[in-house]
Amino acid sequence: MAKYLAQIIVMGVQVVGKAFARALRQEFAASRAAADARGRAGQQSAAASTLSGLSLQEAQQILNVSRLSAEEVQKNYEHLFKVNDKSVGGSFYLQSKVVRAKERLDEELRIQAQNQGKEPQK
Length: 122
Hints:
about 0% strand
């Protein structure tokens, strides 16, 4: 009885292990394909994130921007910059984060425009 139970456990572990290995290989392949698809734009975006110290997602969260559009970025930037002005009781630290987030998003817009063969809008 114990022998059969041990065989069942071993077989179960083997099945789960094979399934896990297959899933891991698929995930690596999908990740590699996504990285290849991003290509040069992904490299430029990563470089911009490194230089600014903010990731694209972090900058979007700071400015409360769901999709990347110059108008929405500018509108939210102006509002948050005014709200965090030190003269009205705001925080200089938060205001500087807002400025850095706008710089990062402007850089991303420039990269996207460059990849589409257009000049960035200012």
